[in-house]
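Record type: monomer structure entry
Structure origin: computed from sequence
Chain ID: A
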Amino acid sequence: METLRDRAAARPMRVAFPEGDNDTMMRAVAELTEAGLAKCVLVGDASELARLAEERGVSLDGVEVVDVTDEAGNAACAERYLAHPDCKYKAKGVARRMTRPLERALIMQVLGDVDVMFAGIASATGDIILAAQTIVGLADGVDTISSCGIADVPGWDGGEGGLIGFGDSAVCVNPTPEELASIAIASSETVAALTGWDVRCALLSHSTDGSMDNELVDKVRAARDIANERRPDLKIDGEFQFDAAINPKVAAKKVARESEVAGRANLLIWPDINVGNIGVKIIQNLTGADAYGPMLQGFKKIVCDCSRSAPVSEIVGNVVMSCVRAQALEG
């Protein structure tokens, strides 16, 4: 995280916060601004935000505020958005969305006014995903929204120096082969953007390289083939059992072919959310691992959803990771 903070501070990205009226979110924005980690933009009722900041003793010095009650500002933004090729609404629909902080923040992303949209402490994940799918849209080669994270496993020398990526543990419940391929592609790009690793992505199963034949295994094999066809530049392979994915000695016994991933994976793709949720909690509880994320992925822009119970420190950490991802997306 210290490395990521340094990277974020070296080139601060513009982050829109449509839930700045929330106490925890406002305090996180103040901390991010004071530390120079991001250029924060609160989107909401300006007078109410100022009143709450004074009441809470929170300084908003250096924080930009986009006032959704400013009719002239709303009209100017609406005119720009209506002229944008990605605008999907007519004039009346656009005008309504200018006054809704979440949708206004996403529209600001489309227009290039901000790099990241960060919400979730007062909004349901489903609402954020639906709004972002409609306004921002999906990235090329992706047909589903998913999430990924990174675990730091103490005392383990596998993965990448004891770190390993994983996805999807939070969003896509029972992915089809096409959706599983999208998760692998998006997770590979997210982890590479955050870490700079040469990502080696393993699609996990209860079978290794044909040791079993059933519909569960068929789904994982099909996902591998789709991912390789869509993105032959990425190292995505499977199907592998967990041990064959991360342990070179096991892979040497079970995988009777050349593979750049088997036994050396630093990114794991779960076959469904049951496995993903259970797997992450096993890793955390049995090893004491720290797990960062989950991070939403698959959109054209960086859209973030935090837990409704997230403390200031977690929000700051997730914003930092989001900014580093946005730096990579920008180039």
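Annotation 1: The chain has a mean pLDDT of 95.
Annotation 2: Residues 15 and 159 are 31 Å apart (CA to CA).
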